[in-house]
Amino acid sequence: MDSWFRSKWFVRVVSLAFAVFFYIFVTVDQNSVPNNGESTFPAGDETQNLETLDEVPVNIDIDSEKYVVSGVPEFVSVTLEGSAAVLQPTLRNRNFDVWVDLQGLEAGEHTVELQHDISDKLDVFIEPKRVDVVIEEKSTQEFQVKVDFINTDSMADGYELGDFEVSPQKVTITSAKSVIEKIGIVKAYVDVSGLDEAIDNREVPVNVYDSQGNELSVNVEPENVVISANITNPSKKVPVSVQTTGEPPKGYALSTISANVDEVEVFARSSILKDLEKVSTEEIDLADIKKSGTIETNLALPDGATVSNGKKVEVTVELEQTKVLEGVPIEIEGLQDDLEVAFKDPTNPEMKLTVTGKQSDIAELNREDFRVFIDVKDLEPGTHDVSINVESPDGLSVEPEFEQASIEINETS
């Protein structure tokens, strides 16, 4: 053993072993002490997490009093990679900004890189990374606001727009000079569908369009205008006409037909009332009516028109009925006592009467209600053609079988 200790190779091996042991001891001792609160494990052993944030807003750093900018996306996607200890608070709080720095750039086209203030302990990937922007000098101009009432055809029946007011009448628009030059019209839309009362201080947004009708994104001051409008309900009084179709059943005729109102007040738009001279009822089929009386029907109003008391009206129908009375005697009037009359044509002193009148008047008629006669006063003996006279109740139309009679007057023996 003494020879081992005296051997130079033995000393070298032992020295090497002590050196290795001491190195390991020092290394482990250093790694066992925390470093600024970070993990005690080597960075290369930490788990790396990857998260993507969509719709991260982009700010614009520029003199907004002097310039306007186009081409900057409203949102970008931001992907973050790093340890959970740093990543999770960043995701949770979102206490960072993404922006484009345009300070110091002149008007014109530029390609700029998006900036951020996210912790440098995370790897940050922004999509898109760069954007092409256009910087233009800001321009401000006043424009008249045109009010456009939409769905006027869908207003409550009979109503239409009257006078209106808009406040303010002009708005101030600010944007790039090139955009201001494109402005064709500035509008405020007012929806009046179903409207049946005045518009009182309704606030509506202002829209800006170019000459092609494309909406422009500009700054409008104020963004809304206030609209007030009168709503009118024009009216016109017109006569009522009863509309019929067909013919009464056989044996009947129409005597009179009339509505229970002579005229109605129609409410409608002026364009409808302008040419409206009367209002008819819906068609009444006379073939279905077999007796006089009252029926209910509707007024045939134009589309968009109304009447104050509703569309229903009562119509009174009076039918005429025809009745034939057979064998009505022909009386002789004015005959002298020493004369007599013989009928040649007709051969008998009687005839048929065809009577037409109101159904109520015809129902109880008989021959005794009529007087048929010839007047032979002052006639000498001989052959004569004389008129046949008919006396009947008022309101009847009488058609006699014969208009005149041929008679022979003789002296009595």
TrEMBL record:
The chain crosses the membrane at residues 9-26. Pfam families: YbbR. Keywords: Membrane, Transmembrane, Transmembrane helix. InterPro entries: c-di-AMP_regulator (IPR053154), YbbR (IPR012505). The keyword Translocase does not apply. This is YbbR domain-containing protein. The keyword Ion transport does not apply. Coiled coil: none annotated. Residues 394-413 are annotated as: Disordered. It comes from the Bacteria. It comes from Virgibacillus chiguensis. PANTHER family: CDAA REGULATORY PROTEIN CDAR (PTHR37804:SF1).
